[in-house]
Design goal:
There is one protein chain. Helix 1 (4-11) runs antiparallel to helix 2 (17-33) and helix 6 packs across helix 7. By secondary structure, the chain is mainly alpha-helical. It is built from 7 helices and 3 strands. 10% of the residues are buried. The chain has 2 domains: 4-51, no CATH class; 64-133. The protein has helices at residues 4-11, 17-33, 38-51, 64-75, 83-90, 94-101, 105-120, and strands at residues 80-82, 124-125, 131-133.
């Protein structure tokens, strides 16, 4: 059975202000009944977090085959494309999105790769680099 405190904390996210207030009051009472308070709870939480080993998120490398397939599908019937539209489509690939969200350098390399791949498909880059035509 879950501890009462563990049951009360998620209730603090309710969309009902009344439920949030009731949960906050019940949490405060529960802590006081145990001879504690919210500040001690926060300290215990911070200490537990500090004792956990730092874990670097493992990001999947970009599958450039998926990038190429996505670009191929997007440009199949087009003679002119905007780079931002192509990249928006490429960003729907989970691995690419994760790299961009994590601000990984490889996430930034994807744009250059897409530009070169469009040129291999016969698209010519505009002087601004914003559009490609074939």
């Amino acid at each position: 059975m879950k501890d009462r405190i563990a049951l009360l904390i998620p209730m603090l996210t309710s969309s009902s202000d009344g439920e949030v207030l009731k949960a906050a009051r019940a949490l405060d009472k529960e802590l006081k009944d145990r001879g504690s308070d919210i500040h001690a709870l926060v300290r215990a939480w911070e200490q537990a977090l500090a004792e956990q080993p730092a874990v670097e998120p493992q990001l999947n490398p970009v599958d450039y085959g998926k990038v190429e397939s996505t670009v191929n599908l997007f440009v199949a019937d087009k003679t002119k494309v905007r780079m931002r539209d192509v990249l928006k489509e490429v960003h729907t690939i989970a691995e690419v999105r994760a790299l961009l969200d994590a601000a990984e350098p490889e996430g930034l390399v994807v744009g250059g790769y897409v530009s070169r791949y469009l040129q291999r498909l016969g698209f010519k880059r505009s002087p601004s680099g914003l559009t490609f035509s074939r």
